[in-house]
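Moderator note: this is an archived Q&A kept for reference. The question asked for a predicted structure of one protein chain; the sequence and the answer are reproduced below.
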Amino acid sequence: LFRNMGGDHFVDVTAQSRLGDESYTHGVTAGDYDSDGFQDLYVCNIGSNRLYRNCGDGTFQDVTSEAGLKGGGWSTSGLIADLNGDGLPEIYDVTYLAGREPFEHVCHDKQRDNTPRTCSPAVFQAEQDRLFLNRGDGTFEDISARSGIHAPDGKGLGIVAGDFDGSGRLSLFVANDTTANFLLVNLTNSPSEPLKFIEQGVLAGCAFDLGGKAQASMGVAADDADGDGLTDLFVTNFYNEYNTLYRQLPGGVFSDVSNVARLKEPSLAKLGFGTQFIDGDLDGWPDLVVANGHVDDFRSHGIPFRMQAQYFANLGGGQFTELPAQQLGDYFQQELLGRGLARIDWNRDGREDFVVSNVNSPVCLVTNQTVETGHFLALQLRGVESNRDAIGAVVKVTVGRRTRTKQLTAGDGFQASNHRQLLFGVGDSVTVDELSVRWPSGREQSFRDVRIDTEYLLIEGRTDVARIPRP
């Protein structure tokens, strides 16, 4: 754990914070499961996962056993979010492959001199995901079997929770490796009802690519890429596959528009993992950043191993172009084995940065130093009737003739959690005409007297806005 001390300075406080988990860890997710105002951590491991309660004094307490979070397996990603609307966040555990065989079986590439290689997940059985219901007393109940989340052959790597159909309920998109992606649609009408999902990825059009093929889905990014007010999904995939942009259409269905968006060809010679939408120049159109890197070293056969990350600028309306590495800075010119990627404005200058984990290389903190940018509006949300983290809130910012829409999601893709802030680029505009929020509870509010280049805290039910001082 690195504490931000300000002034380009971080301090390793792992020992003091009591977060020194020495398990074989794949991912982590953050959320306030006990609604005390402090972000807790759920760590996804091979074996027993860990729930760390934030004590609010810079330390964490391992409450895994007390919380009743039993079971092991191979967890890759997770989320903490209120899925039934009672204000108490659940924990969803994305799992990958079952049993010991994935760690013991050796595969060989028969097309390349019988070279030992990483086994395809298609060789192994899938592990079933797990869902833990928050009882409200610090403990959880495993409701996986009766909640409807169990679907055949889900080898999960990434997840995003969001309201994808306008129902006001959080549904779950799970990116599966070599098998159909899941869209677990939330059918729960009230907190008094048992939590229930139905898998509708195929019907919704986001299970396969345009050709009807399951891809090696890994990272997931969610945002309104084309400015129509609906949340779209971008999914990274394997080498010689293409990364997929699923445009959301009215009615909660999706269409693969990767080729039309000019994202297909540039991704074929890459193997993508972590990804996020980032408005790097604050023009109001979310760009894309992708961390790349292979899982096998086949350089002797002409296949790249370490790879450069990619940045795709949104030209408006969901059309993208890849920017050259030399234009972007040192990070994009390095060849790395990129994995998890999270969005964060770590220096709070109104320009979104990101952090990337790498295999056998240090973590990269990539700072946005774009000089010619537009103006911005940064928002933090606090639920009162809704869950405190306000996951599922939909915010609209109107500037001139254009309305920008963002949703506060959870899960945030592959093995990571984003900064819980919604940052709107507003381009050259110097005023905000309207700011509205639809909270997860269903309450709708409008806020006035909002200035650009400012960070605000919006609290559900309060009409005033609290300005957060910048450093």
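Archived answer notes: The helical segments are 14-17, 64-67, 101-104, 144-147, 201-204, 325-328, 330-333.
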